[in-house]
């Protein structure tokens, strides 16, 4: 299939490419588009065949349900007839924005879209291109992240092209996304509501408006054997880079010296090594690292601005893939804000390989 790739300026939306994309969606085709979190791979959420095509293009298991994207609150009542009071309050406060809510599904929503579940995930994105595409097409757009299943989510169009060129009808290139991590998922079919995936909208922000919110245990550890993750997608090994990723946790000096020691060992064995550090901690490595062409040190962002870390994470993992880096050693990012969301993704990418270092 020839994939049409067109750039779109979010501050100056042109009708031609939006019209073309809208027509593709109306005809049951697939269009990748930017949202404020990550790029999505969109199809008609009310047509099971469109969901089938999405699963096929991503190589995604079809029991992993899709999020339906809407552009107005009226559309929510087409997808569910049970809108809890708390959902209305949250929609008022956080929509459009990076919050996905789970509801009982209306019969209109095909099981093909919800992975066979009786519930449906809904989100109103805030990205102007996403909103314009939903409005122009009149389609309620089912959209997972626009990556091949198991790869890091795309934060720019080039990532989508890498994974899906030739497999979908169109890619709208609206530049780099703002947040870089997928939306927070909140299940409102249980009381108190439960966070199934952490994101930019934190537990504290939700609790400020609706009171107690619980968090799916197992979100930060793989030791959820007693409890199946509530969001089916959270059980798969996601966001995985090709190299072997290990996270080091502890006092920054000890982390840097342990990472440096491991780097020496790996490069001596002829392996390529990538180190993930921050603006604040990069200088700790200066006298410790071997002078080796096998080594790359990448600054993910600043600890003072956790959103910079969130925004760079997936792109950085993809860069390591592109350069064929075999071993990736990362610092830990349990920053107060966004730390949960960042570490949830990083731990999964590492297959939960984390080394806890004691102060000596
Ligand atoms: O930010 C986002 O949410 C992005 C953009 C494109 O909107 N989308 C996204 O979709 O991350 P996806 O498919 O990559 O992740 C959706 C997650 C999966 O873990 C899935 O299992 C969960 O949402 N999910 C969807 N419907 C659900 C449901 N009815 N019950 C529980 N979990 C659900
Ligand atoms: Mg995804």
- Name given to the CATH architecture of the largest domain: Alpha-Beta Complex
- Biggest sheet features: 11 strands, mixed
Helix content: 25-40%
Distance between the ends: 59 Å
Report the mean per-residue pLDDT as an integer. 94
Q: What global shape is seen? A: globular
Total domains, how many?
A: 2
Strand order of the largest sheet: 1-8-2-3-7-4-6-5-9-10-11
The CATH superfamily of the largest domain appears as DHBP synthase
**What would the CATH topology of the largest domain be?**
DHBP synthase
Overall description:
This protein is α/β, with parallel strands linked by helices and 360 residues long. The chain contains 11 helices and 16 strands. The protein has helices at 15-26, 48-58, 73-79, 85-94, 111-114, 128-137, 157-164, 203-210, 252-268, 306-322, 339-349, and strands at residues 4-7, 31-33, 40-44, 67-69, 99-104, 119-123, 141-142, 170-173, 184-187, 194-197, 214-215, 244-249, 273-277, 295-299, 327-330, 354-356. The strands form 2 sheets. Strands 1-8-2-3-7-4-6-5-9-10-11 form an 11-stranded mixed β-sheet, sandwiched between helices. A 5-stranded parallel β-sheet has the order 14-13-15-12-16, sandwiched between helices. Helix 1 packs across helix 6 and helix 10 (306-322) packs parallel to helix 11 (339-349). The radius of gyration is 21 Å and the shape is globular. The mean pLDDT is 94. Residues 144-145, 153 line the site of magnesium ion (MG).
């Amino acid at each position: 299939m020839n994939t049409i790739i067109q750039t779109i300026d979010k501050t100056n939306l042109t009708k031609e490419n939006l019209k073309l994309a809208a027509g593709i969606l109306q005809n049951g085709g697939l269009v990748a588009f930017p949202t404020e979190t990550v790029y999505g791979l969109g199809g008609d959420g009310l047509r099971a065949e469109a969901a089938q095509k999405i699963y096929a293009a991503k190589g995604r298991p079809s029991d992993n349900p899709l999020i339906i994207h809407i552009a107005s609150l009226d559309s929510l009542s087409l997808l569910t007839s049970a809108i809890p009071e708390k959902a209305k309050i949250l929609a008022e406060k956080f929509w459009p924005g990076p919050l996905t809510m789970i509801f009982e599904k209306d019969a209109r929503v095909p099981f093909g879209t919800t992975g066979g579940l009786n519930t449906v995930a809904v989100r109103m994105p805030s990205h102007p291109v996403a909103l314009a595409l939903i409005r122009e097409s009149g389609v309620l757009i089912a959209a997972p992240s626009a990556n091949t299943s198991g790869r890091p989510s795309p934060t720019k169009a080039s990532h989508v092209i890498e994974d899906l060129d030739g497999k979908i009808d169109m890619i709208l290139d609206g530049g780099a996304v703002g947040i870089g991590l997928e939306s927070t998922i909140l299940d409102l079919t249980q009381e108190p509501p439960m966070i199934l995936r952490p994101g930019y909208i934190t537990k504290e922000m939700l609790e400020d408006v609706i009171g107690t919110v619980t968090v799916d245990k197992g979100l930060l550890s793989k030791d959820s054997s007693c409890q199946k993750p509530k969001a089916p997608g959270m059980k798969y090994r996601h966001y995985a880079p090709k190299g072997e990723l290990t996270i080091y946790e502890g006092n920054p000096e000890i982390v840097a010296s342990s990472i440096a020691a491991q780097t020496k060992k790996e490069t001596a064995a002829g392996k390529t090594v990538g180190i993930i550090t921050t603006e604040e901690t990069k200088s700790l490595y200066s006298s410790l690292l071997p002078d080796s062409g096998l080594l790359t040190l990448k600054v993910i962002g600043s600890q003072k601005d956790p959103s910079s870390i969130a925004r760079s994470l997936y792109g950085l993992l993809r860069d390591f893939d592109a350069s064929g880096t075999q071993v990736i050693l990362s610092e830990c990012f349990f920053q107060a804000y966004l730390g949960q969301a960042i570490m949830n993704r990083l731990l999964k990418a590492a297959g939960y390989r984390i080394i806890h270092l004691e102060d000596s």
